[in-house]
Amino acid sequence: MTSFSEARNAYTRGRIAGAGPLDLLLMAYEVAVTACRRNDSPRAIQALVLLEGVLDFSHGEDAAAGLLRIYRYCEELVRNGQHEEAGRWLAELGEAWSDARREMRKVEKKVAIARKRPRAV
Asked: pLDDT per residue over 109-121, tens digit each?
């Protein structure tokens, strides 16, 4: 018999294995927000360090630098026991990335449909 914990871990491994980069980013946000809601400082900091580590400064350094400042601010909030405030910041950022993913999927569908159409000669 499989325990609930084992089943949850298997589900999580499968979810990670099938995820794209943006999906993985959103998962990190989920972990960070959940940790903040649970006042789990070590896990929240771990998720924030992960988010910092995947920042790409080679494309749009300003955006990456801005996110880095927000992540470090959230770390400071967590270290000061202000989990709720950190969670609000992270939830808002996660929602923005989720919106971006939805928009990307719409564009991908339009491109796929356009590629299937026969071209006029």
From this structure: 888 888 887 776 5
